[in-house]
Amino acid sequence: MPNEKTPLFYDIIEQRRSTRKFQAGRDVSKTALKRIVDCGRWAPSGANVQCWDFIVVDDPQMIKRVTEVFLKQAQRLVDHAKGFPAVKKTYLANTVAIILVIGDPRWKVCFPHSNSAEWVKEYDDNNEAIFLCSLGAAIQNIQLGVTAEGLTSSWLSGGGEETTNKDLSELLGYPDWMTAFGTIPIGYPIASQDRRYRRPIDQIIHWNGYNSKQYRTNKQVDYYESTLRPFAMYRDSELMTDWKDMDQKLGEWSEAFTGKTTNPSGTLEEKTDFSKPRSIGSATKRRRKIND
Fold it and tell me: What mean pLDDT value characterizes the chain?
């Protein structure tokens, strides 16, 4: 077995970017798009059910109509998910194609099911996880295929929202009980894209068991949501240590977000309700001001 990573494969992974600035006036061949979709076809899936279909939109007029659906979706985020650092979807007009990954829930019948009422919830919940993870694998494969073709993309999860999915199903003709879990606009980037923030490898890798000193605390999650999120999502830098205002942004949380040890005490916490934001930071204050 080789001791070093295969350069081409790892280069593709590291070059993949979620890009939102495409060049206008470009096109891509159906042959290249077919190769990209074939990457999705080879993704792993539970029970090998391949619970997906791929809709490739490359007609300029249809791209425009799909874009209109997502412009409305973006406005709903502004109106009903205030405080989330939403991205305008106007850049979709410059894509050369849009690939939608459609999930077909009927195939969950092939996953393990309980033979007693006592275990129904456990297997139903796990089947949903298998279904979504299978679709996520296909979405990721497609994005890597896009990168291998010298193109770039992003992943719009908004198609999974009920209202948006209904609009897409009416436009594209698939049953509304299927869901567009992944919408992937494809294009040529206006400029080379820098890396986005990634957690240090020594912070996320656990050898032969979970290291409780690498556990991220509730307060750290709160701080990321309330203060760091807009910067970690959109700044063109892999390392927070490269931020010129790192000390200002991280403060006492510098080691937690840039070092190996996030939880020196090694104390783990009980499950906590994170179904909605819980703390006050710059992003939270902005959200609450909008909501008042």
Answer: 86
CATH topology of domain 7-187: NADH Oxidase (3.40.109)
| SS3 assignment, position 217 | coil
Please report, as a single letter, which amino acid is at residue 18.
Answer: S
At 1 the pLDDT is: 45
**Residue 46 and residue 190: Cα distance in Å, rounded?**
38
What is the Cα–Cα distance from 51 to 40, expressed in whole angstroms? Answer: 11
Among 228, 171, 238, which residue's Cα sits nearest to residue 198? 238
Domain ranges of the chain: 7-187, 201-291
Q: How far is the C-alpha of 95 from the C-alpha of 152, rounded, in Å?
A: 10
Which pLDDT score is estimated for 87?
64
Q: What pLDDT is stored for residue 151 in this prediction?
A: 87
Classify residue 207 as exposed, middle or buried by CB count within 10 Å of its CB (0-12, 13-18, 19+). Answer: exposed
Burial 89-113 (b: 16+ CB within 10 A, else e): bebbbbbbbbbbbbbbeebbeebee
CB neighbour list of residue 222: distance below 8 Å, 6 or more residues apart: 277, 278, 279, 281
Please tell me whether residue 181 adopts helix, strand or coil conformation: strand
Q: At residue 233, what are phi and psi to the nearest 5 degrees?
A: -75, -35
Instruction: Using 70 as the pLDDT threshold, list the residues of the chain that sit under it.
Output: 1-7, 20, 82-88, 191-194, 281-292
Distance, in Å, from the CA atom of 256 to the CA atom of 215, rounded to the nearest integer, reads: 10
Amino acid identity of residue 247, one-letter, is D
CA distance linking residue 193 with residue 24, whole number of Å: 17
Please write the tens of the pLDDT for every residue from 12-51.
777 777 776 777 778 899 999 999 999 999 999 998 999 9
Structure tokens belonging to residue 83: 């405080």
In terms of Cβ atoms closer than 10 Å to its own Cβ (0-12, 13-18, 19+), residue 223 is buried
